[in-house]
Amino acid sequence: MHVLFVCTGNTCRSPMAEALMREALANRGAEQVTVSSAGTGAWDGAPVSEGAYLVGLEHGLDLSGHRAQLLTRELVKSADLVLTMSSHHRARVAELGGEDKVHVLGEYLGRDESRSEVTDPFGSDLASYRQTFEELQELIGGVVSRVAGTVR
Question: Cα torsion at 117, 122, 127, 130 (round to 10°)?
Answer without folding.
Answer: 60
